[in-house]
Write a structure and sequence with these properties.
Number of strands: 10
Pfam families: Cupin_1
CATH topology of the largest domain: Jelly Rolls
Number of helices: 4
Structural class: alpha+beta
Distance between the termini: 83 Å
Low-confidence stretches: none
Mean pLDDT: 92
Helix content: 10-25%
Largest sheet: 5 strands, antiparallel
GO molecular function: manganese ion binding
Family: Belongs to the germin family.
Organism: Carya illinoinensis
Strand content: 25-35%
Subcellular location: Secreted, Extracellular space, Apoplast
Radius of gyration: 23 Å
Strand order of the largest sheet: 1-2-9-4-7
């Protein structure tokens, strides 16, 4: 009669060669789908697919929002494809803001490493949650909810952000409303904003109509 120890050991040996797909490095030459990128062939994968150095470089804040965001999503960092994680860096100059936006594909955690950031989000019940964050503080923003970050200090603020998706997506509310060709009267009817103000915002952000 075979002892239980020998039986378990033999079972482990018999399954040790089962095929396991350790990773799915993004093939950026292939089209992206809602499920992510197709996997690069293992023979074409290198260590460089698992390393990303962009977050060590400050983002460009010389723009209308005085903020720069550097992403390490699957499209930038192929090694995270399919792993349910990604990162970003946010640099916000004095007086800068990352306007109301959403990430439809993932939740966000913000870690402040420099400066002071006033941040918040709005729930689907229209409850507002805001907090002034200092160096070392973190705040979570649930998936799909509108949220924002403002530099509320006297020096540049820097935050590192993690996401629960390799492709969290991004939609900035001001751009969604005023940086397209949606007719001004439609925007006015659906937002109750004044048409003159809508036209001014379109002129600033590059919208038409």
């Amino acid at each position: 009669m075979i002892s239980p120890v020998i039986f378990i050991f033999s079972l482990l040996l018999s399954t040790s060669h089962a095929a396991v797909q350790d990773f799915c490095v993004a093939d950026l030459e292939a089209p992206e789908s809602p499920a992510g990128y197709a996997c690069k062939k293992p023979a074409a994968v290198t260590v460089n697919d698992f390393v990303f150095s962009g977050l060590g470089i400050p983002g460009d804040t010389s723009n209308i929002i005085k903020a720069g965001v550097t992403t390490a999503f699957a499209s930038d960092f192929p090694g995270v494809n399919g792993l349910g994680i990604s990162l970003a860096r946010a640099d916000i100059a004095v007086g800068g803001v990352i306007p109301f936006h959403t990430h439809p594909g993932g939740s966000e955690v913000l870690l402040v490493v420099e400066g002071t950031i006033f941040a918040g989000f709005v729930s689907s019940a229209n409850d507002v949650y805001t907090q002034t964050l200092q160096k070392g503080d973190i705040m979570v923003f649930p998936q799909g909810l509108l949220h924002f970050q403002i530099n509320s200090g006297s020096s540049t603020a820097v935050g590192f952000v993690s996401f629960s998706s390799a492709t969290p997506g991004l939609q900035l509310l001001p751009y969604a409303l005023f940086k397209n060709d949606l007719p001004t009267d439609i925007i006015a009817a659906t937002t109750f904003l004044d048409e003159d103000q809508i036209m001014k915002l379109k002129a600033v952000l590059g919208g038409t109509g």
